[in-house]
Design goal:
Elements (H helix, E strand, L loop, with lengths): L2 H6 L10 H6 L11 H20 L9 H14 L11 H14 L3 H40 L2 H6 L6 H20 L3 H21 L6 H11 L8 H23 L4 H9 L14 H4 L1 H7 L12 H15 L5 H15 L2 E4 L2 E4 L11 H18 L1 H40 L7 E3 L1 H7 L11 E3 L5 H9 L4 E5 L24 E6 L15 E5 L20
Parallel strand pairs: 3-4, 3-5
Antiparallel strand pairs: 1-2, 5-7, 6-7
Helix pairs in contact: 3-6, 4-5, 5-6, 5-9, 6-8, 6-17, 8-9, 9-11, 10-16, 15-17, 16-17, 17-18, 18-19
Length: about 550
Amino acid sequence: MSRSEVRSQSVPSDDEVNVIDQRKHGEPGHRSLLDRTDLARMLGLMALGLGLRLLYFSGFGLADDQIFRGNIAFVLNNRTLTGDNVGYRLTWLLPTALFCKIFGLTEPCMIVPIITTATLGIGLIYVFGKALWGRQGGLIAALLLIVHPLDFSFSTMLVNDIPLSFFSALSILCALRALQHEDAAWRCRLWILAGVSFWLAFQAKISAVFLAPAFAAICWTNRRRLGPQFLDFLVTVGALFGATILAYYLFAGDPLAPYHAELRYQGLVGPEAPAHRLTADWFWMYPKLLFLPDRLGGLQFSVYPYLLVAFATAGWFLSIRTSSEVFWWFFFVFMGMQFNIQRAGDVWITGFRNIRHAHMFVYPLILLLTGYFVSLRFKHPRVCYGALAVVILFSTWQSSAAASKTQIAFADRRNVCRFLTTMPQKVIYSDGAIYTWCAILEAKGRVWQFKELHSFDPEKRRAEIAAITSGYLVTGGGREPHYGCYDCIPKANELPPSKWQLLKEFPGPAEPSPWRPEPLRLWEAREDLVGDGSRAGTTALAPSD
């Protein structure tokens, strides 16, 4: 069907043309975006995504979890906010604090707001896809999100980047819908909601400022559609951000307190700044994360970036296209994250870059890919459906592989810490990662006594272990697969067998891997075993089932 034929239709089909393009050609666009069929599909897709994610639940285990739990505990105990770089993230902080206030400061209660937002994100991406390309677009976008490895694995962890992505997507969607709608009252409401969502994204994380140039580009390319209602967006943004700046000035003495807090707590100011010198590895981290396997051999973005490049290249020859508005969203967010570089003294430095920070790329990348799939469907439906099936199957495998690693590794630490709460209190010898999980465990009346063993040198660690006369020792198991120190994990063969008794071997894969060299075991040093080779390797408890 040619574009002229599309324009000649009085009521174009939802699946035949980009709705933004319909608005540009003056076609009617005031029909309800969602009906009962859409709502049923959304609920089904959200239930599917939630069920799969809960099947691979990870929970606590990231390095910052102890800090985040401390932030929530501080809010509950002091009824005020912390002054660090987490205290301004109200979009995540307040709902989590409220949930923990009602149900308790536990691991599930801390994770529920994150996985709830991720589940709502599946519904949101369906709405976004339908708004641009009809029901086929909504369905394809939701399916691609359900099996996106990064979203799949991190949505059951304490990752407040997910609320940032959600409200960023909601703000862009509301802006696009405001540009599409013909009714002035609805345009006004949508522009206000876009401004509020933009502010909520900022209150999730300061990285939301990268949306500002994206809004500017989208509005400029659709300037003929702005209308007087666009002033509602400007007033909303101005009022909310102005009030926020004023509040920080009055109560913190710094109108840019969140920005300065991020710099300070990342060590990007003061004498610590040169330690964050920009290197080639740090600079290329995000492109590598998009296109190359991580240190565990998995593709956190599956083949989505490769496919997007292939579609963009073939689009010139196949006459397939995607949304230019979503492109500007992805472009400015990526460039802002990639070139988040500052000058400190005589060196260039960069803030800490993490896998989870790249979640901001997930929604726009999926929508760009969805646009190409829908466009390809009209010209080559079999190719479209075949390629989509292969991508979904491959991404499901990658999602399972990514989520199972953190699930197993975090379960190791959870299990040993919970078991230790049932044992008499003694000094616990381990690497630091065990302590970080035990420290966030709610254990009434227990004072943890940890001593961290030497990190990298096995020989020095052997000497430390040989000098222990009393206490517990944790060997093997998994830690934090992405950034954990695998060499720091004490091994069972480093123990003098004549003085250690195996208390428990915890369930888990028997096959060794780089991130989990051997099963997790808990040992006890006994004075009556020192030098008594006749009782070497005595086992008090068999491996649990």
